[in-house]
Design a protein that fits this description.
about 120 residues, 6 helices
Length: about 120
């Protein structure tokens, strides 16, 4: 059962972290694409917030042992994996290599959490 708690907290922490990171970037005016590419960044932000919401919801569902979490959790991890694969390109383009390590760690932890949780979700 410990692995379910890990998976749930991982999802919640990453989801809240995504919201916090984007909020801080917005407040500190660190999203130049709002001016240069407003439509593209709006779609990107919508996807990021949808991912964060799914992660938080799935994590809470796992903690509460809700049956719907068995479907939502893998979906939320898939959304997170997509983000963890596509987002580093932005930072690599700017030479911010530490972010690549963070995204790599998130991807590995997402895969680990899926491996740990999936046997209990079958059946």
């Amino acid at each position: 059962m410990c692995y379910m708690v890990f998976a749930a907290f991982f999802a919640i922490v990453v989801g809240l972290g995504m919201v916090a990171q984007w909020t801080m970037s917005y407040v500190n005016k660190q999203i130049p694409e709002l001016t240069s590419e407003p439509i593209r960044i709006a779609f990107h932000l919508a996807a990021e917030m949808a991912t964060a919401l799914m992660l938080i919801t799935a994590g809470i569902g796992l903690l509460n042992l809700n049956s719907w979490a068995a479907m939502l959790y893998p979906l939320s991890m898939g959304m997170l994996l997509y983000t963890a694969i596509v987002s580093p390109g932005y930072f690599a383009q700017r030479g911010n290599w530490a972010w690549l390590g963070m995204f790599g760690a998130i991807a590995l932890l997402a895969i680990l959490s899926l491996i740990l949780v999936s046997p209990s979700m079958v059946g």
